[in-house]
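Final report, results section. Input specification for complex C-07:
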Amino acid sequence: MTVMWTVKVIGMGLVALSLSVELLSRLLRRLRPERSLNEVLFFPSEMACVEHIFTQSSPFSCFCSLPHGVETSFSRLLRHIMSASSTLDLCVFAFSNMDLSRAVLALHGRNVTIRVLTDRHYSAITGSQIGVLRKAGICVRCDVGSVHMHHKFAVVDGQLLITGSLNWTLTAVQSNMENILVTEEPDLVRPFIKEFHRLWTHNDPAH
Amino acid sequence: MTVMWTVKVIGMGLVALSLSVELLSRLLRRLRPERSLNEVLFFPSEMACVEHIFTQSSPFSCFCSLPHGVETSFSRLLRHIMSASSTLDLCVFAFSNMDLSRAVLALHGRNVTIRVLTDRHYSAITGSQIGVLRKAGICVRCDVGSVHMHHKFAVVDGQLLITGSLNWTLTAVQSNMENILVTEEPDLVRPFIKEFHRLWTHNDPAH
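Structure output:
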């Protein structure tokens, strides 16, 4: 009887232990969410060849005079933009950077849905890429509700926020002290998605 | 013997249970870190009286013509700046907003250590508060290493990052579409602290 008792207690103990371990590991998985991406990029960026980001080839297959195979703030920024697979919502004050324009056109060519909201005065500056994007069939709206539409943010696939002080110009990338913050933190991404939607609707030319 | 056995098993079970509960609750506290602050503010801000933020009085004790007791993007921004208790590192392209200048001067009066880094050209624009801050004894440095020092960020007490598209001007606050992101996320705050330190050292006039 005592032996049976001991066997029963040990058996129940083992069952309880294995159940607890399973429960605990499930709990841990729930409580430790996947770390979301948080990255800060500073500018001016080093100059380096970015051809391979567009052609998805080896960094050394291009023979231009710029350094090759160097990861820079600008190449990181380009990669984040080019990571879009379904949507790119862009809200930018000044847009004249040819590489950034090429990235947006490449995404358009891959059937990524692109919406561009920009400042009505700055859309006409020398070298502005807004006309180029429009001609390619990308939907562009100009802000009419403020002195300046001074945002410089993009939302990739409704999940990744790219925002900061950097306008999408060559001077900003190569000559100014600037910052770009890249985050997937939902508390930060959600308000920007909501604001983009508000501004996009507000600036619908049909209204 | 069997009764003793049962009592012992139940006793040991109770001890094991209470130990497990204690262990589990400690584990939960460890794994669920304090949620860090993440806030996004959009501008233009509604106009409202902010006098009470400076005087720490009732919002209704001021008799100016602006609405009272209204929380706005600008009042939130002011509160975050005014929350500084030890340091404020400010890196801003254009600074002409009188209320923001008043906030910085108030912190200076409370012995908060303030460092201001600004653009050398924009420090001399009409209404610039840079001269006012300098005259009050606040340490200001002008960037000499780039076309424009285009950042618009502040770090409060080495913990809270305030960054975005918004220059510290009246037009930015009242008339432009702008954003400000406020975060305590260490992965985002740390790089800005490091960059401030780099720029501050780089622009030391003694070098």
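The mean pLDDT of chain B is 93. Residues 2-31 of chain B form the longest helix (30 residues). This concludes the modelling results for the funded period.
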